[in-house]
């Protein structure tokens, strides 16, 4: 501005001045001209302005008309100029162009007009966007600046600095003039942005915010102004401030649009080419996309960078990228996207990059694109980019005409949807079944197709597919044969009368697969567990399979069967950490269905350990992950665990609500239905609906016998039926049934045998029960199943009470309460501790509280526990670092509170099997001393 003022002063003195102001788009040229014009008007000068237009650059004399038909000029001046321009227009209409003689007359006439104006006052001619001025106007302007060197005239021409000058001859001639000056405008520095912000903020705040606003705007004044408008925050007192973080919104977008449409067509094309190609854009690639030479692209990129819209070859801010993309019409965008996909494909770019453009176009264009989309979907699945993979598959399917390729695409899409929404995949199974039978779908997909058909209760279709795959003469890949065997382990479609699935025919390939394929190994291990084969071999096999498995759609059933093998082998402690590992993989792979199934198995493991709280948490988690309609027949698995957990906790109202949840009818034709029926029978038994319980247990037995899987490892229905019959008074029948269970090979394990002995004891007289129940307790203690151990201890407590051994009974009651608290069945634990026959004590008196710990202080409890174990007073004093007298005082209070008179009457309370930790000794000044045992 100071430079312009100085040059204006010279022109006022009669020395005409020419100023060429150039700079990138939106660098402030127009604002500079506008502000300077206001100052010229205020000083008494005459400011004549015109603007070149890209749209009107072919209209002859457009800029001269803007300048000299200005309403600020005298009327006679305007009439003179209008006559000159009219003569030029008439001549152009007659001969088709403005002849040299006419141009000369016009130039001389305007020269005289200017001389007259300059004689009255200083004149400033300002032309913005010279690069868009029509050629005739430029020729006349050049004539005027050459002739009028002595006069009160100043000419300011604003030109956009682009890759190439729009009028190189005009520019060269202009700069040759001795009175021509050039001013180059640069973008704002951080300090310049600070000054702009200081108009709204205090200097310290402006200095803090300036770097962020400069980064987003690039120092482009137009973009900065839009950013400031978007980031303004109104305060209650009417004052405004700015957001600490720039918030580019509509004003910023409009500023970007304004910049975009000031460029030449080539630069706009380059900007759009960059936006379409994204971060993989290179000048050669952009040039091929938009039809420009590589050097021309580089020039445009340089221009865009100098304008502040690009930074290091890419858009400075995502909003700029969005605006450039929005400037494309739909047809133009589709055309560019398809062209970009073709270019990337031809140059060997990754399929995922090519697919992005095909997806954006919504079309494939050429046949090769379907294969690219298929490959991109495979990569997307491998990287767990599920939405991207699904979009690729759906577009490819929409355009694919090849039957084999279409079947493969459909299967991949069905697998993908099954990960998170199995019900959405169901509609693909009929065409996939037909494709498999027609030979269009590879046989490796058969086992998963069968699994998913049975999942949705379509066992007849699953049976059809299985029989077709195992038909005589069919050649099965060893891995496929192994997976089919694994499917049969879990997915029985029904009784033999409705078509049970046979195993694949054995052969050399099957023998190979048995040795190398985890599916066959775990099928064998599961069968061993089910048949009651003892030893660690099945457990080792299961863990070997789990250790060598990575969770995928194909391996899911292998992993799940291995986990169930560990649980049914009475090693839920080993299953739980493996569950956690595979749950982590499922979450990482964003596979909700996998996570839900594994959460259900995790709940089963907790149930087998008697941890009812944990079992409920994980079963609810499984049911929350997948809505009921997505579970298919497998809804019965988490529901069965939840039902058993609620029943075990004595929360029968909640269990009843769980039971009211609708399950698929087809579920009862699978072993899932057996587990659900067993859980329902346990609920009926606990709520004294004995006939209903007995019906469910007997149905379990009938189904398991029909399917040749009658194993108490899976569902010990005989012992529960026997317990029900005991309560119905059918003692002999109950004894025979439980004896039958004990004779089964699968009943040799400590858990099943312990459960069986517990029930068998109820069929004998009280004096005969104690040895059986003691053995049951010993066995169940080794399994880690706290709930079953609790039940056995409760029965043993009741047996001792019936025999008059109140001390032993109370001791066992205390342990029952402790176990009940540990396994989440505290509410039911007090009822169990009192025995199943009554909730009241003898003689109708209220039962004595069993949790007597609340009566004692911590010090009294420690003394009492050691005394109950047989320690003398002196031994207790040494153990607890207190005097013998203090021990005696504590014991006196303990006897009084517990209403006992001697040491032998003390029961074993909480932690009766744990060693007490000696208290920490401290000196008088609070320093800790080492314990005696250290």
TrEMBL record:
PROSITE patterns documented for this protein: HTH_LUXR_1, HTH_LUXR_2
Matching CDD domains, A to Z? LuxR_C_like
Query: Is this entry keyworded DNA-binding?
Result: yes
Organism superkingdom: Bacteria
The cross-references to Gene3D superfamilies, in alphabetical order and at most eight, read:
Tetratricopeptide repeat domain, Winged helix-like DNA-binding domain superfamily/Winged helix DNA-binding domain
Identify the residues that the record assigns to the HTH luxR-type domain, covering every copy: 849-914
List keywords of the entry alphabetically.
Answer: DNA-binding, Transcription, Transcription regulation
Q: Which Pfam families match?
A: AAA_16 (PF13191), GerE (PF00196)
Transcription as a keyword?
yes
Q: Which InterPro entries does the record match to this protein? A: AAA_16, P-loop_NTPase, Sig_transdc_resp-reg_C-effctor, TPR-like_helical_dom_sf, Tscrpt_reg_LuxR_C, WH-like_DNA-bd_sf
Enumerate the PANTHER family for this protein: DNA-BINDING TRANSCRIPTIONAL ACTIVATOR DEVR_DOSR
Its protein name is: AAA family ATPase
